Amino acid sequence: MFRAKRKLFIIVPLLALLVSGCGGANSKEDAASAPAKDGDKAVTIKLSNWYAKKMDNWDVVIAEFEKQHPNIKVEFASAEDNNSNEFYKKLDLAVAGGDDLDIIMFSNMTFLSQRAGLGMIEPLDDYLAKDGIKFADEYTADTSIDGKVYGLPGKSSQGLVIINENHLKEAGLELPKDWTWDQYMEYAKAMTKKEGDKTRYGTYFHSWIQYGYLVQNFGQPVNANLTTDDGKKANIDNPFMRKSLELRLQGEAEGSATPYSEVVSQKLNYRPQYFNQDTSMILTGSFLIPETGGTETIPASFKTVFAPTPKLKAEDPIAANVSGDVLSIYSKSKHKDEAYTFIRWFSTEGIVLQGKNIPSWKKADLNDVVDRIIAGSKNPEMIDKASLLYVLENTKSTTAATAVPYHAELEKVLLEEFDKMMLSGQSIEDTIQHAQTKIQKIIDSKS
């Protein structure tokens, strides 16, 4: 979810921070890309993130950028553990300690928004205007906050469903190209298989509370959060929340979804559940596409096919909210021009070259992007290109409003009521009404 239509004080359960830069975008003819003259000293910019340099092809990206821009060197600053939670903690400490920062990646707009409100992020509007760039013509995601652009989007992660093709065929099911949530649960039931005391579940819903309100969170462009988009009213008592809770209880009652009690008590994770074939399908994001073709640590042993995000009603369009990484410039960076040069280049040419994610850049060749992702996987034959392209080409990408600053507090309230429903038998109606009342009280207290 990218767009932030409210004031600049916004956050989520984790913490985040910032970067620096500025310069000439994708053009190889601007000053930043000109060969360094004799005696010129190359500027080094720091790219702060949480990714693994080699595994995620950042070494390839940086080498090509420095080749095209010999007067700019990129320092890759990362713990390389793919843990954004820890990254945000360390970045907060770095800012508090007065460390030099340039470019900082955010895993989504919510983390960026709060920092923009604190004056930590450099607006990019002047840089874009100087290059004659119209943001909406370039990117699918909207990274504006109160009319100003505070970051350029990298990968675009949209909702989709990954399915074990063997399990699908075993159940005699056709790969869905357009389906509802009711049909999703029918597929989950059909693919559930019991052998002795072991059950292979048709689907798995992760412990994140976002899977508690999945119908509105994944597919509703308006009022997708726990407040209405204006931040003034609790947004629990609605058909999308009610359907979400019904689906979760249905999965428990029918035994078609991994029991919630096991998910939380055993601290299960969606990756091993799917890749170890303990579940047949998962609603996830397009960020997981490369892994369906296997990695060095977990080779793919079965073929994955793809289906679009389910819909509440059959007549609804196929749509999914998008989120993804955003690259921003630290307001106190000493090298803003150079940092901008990098984030503009990476958000266009660089992310395609990286070959790991679907870019937000509209001018990318989607077929080429998918080919690169598949080719870069350990077992490329295990990714079904045809169904993947179908989902990507036929899903309308929507951008939901960024959550309120105290969103994590609201999610905690919902999680408490959700747990009572899933683990203690509280009714759906009581769950909705209790959460609606408690969340409204919090909203009123913030006014």
Automatic annotation (TrEMBL):
Keywords: Signal. CDD domains: PBP2_TMBP_like (cd13585). It holds the Pfam family SBP_bac_1. Residues 1-25 form the signal peptide. SUPFAM superfamilies: Periplasmic binding protein-like II. This is Sugar ABC transporter substrate-binding protein.
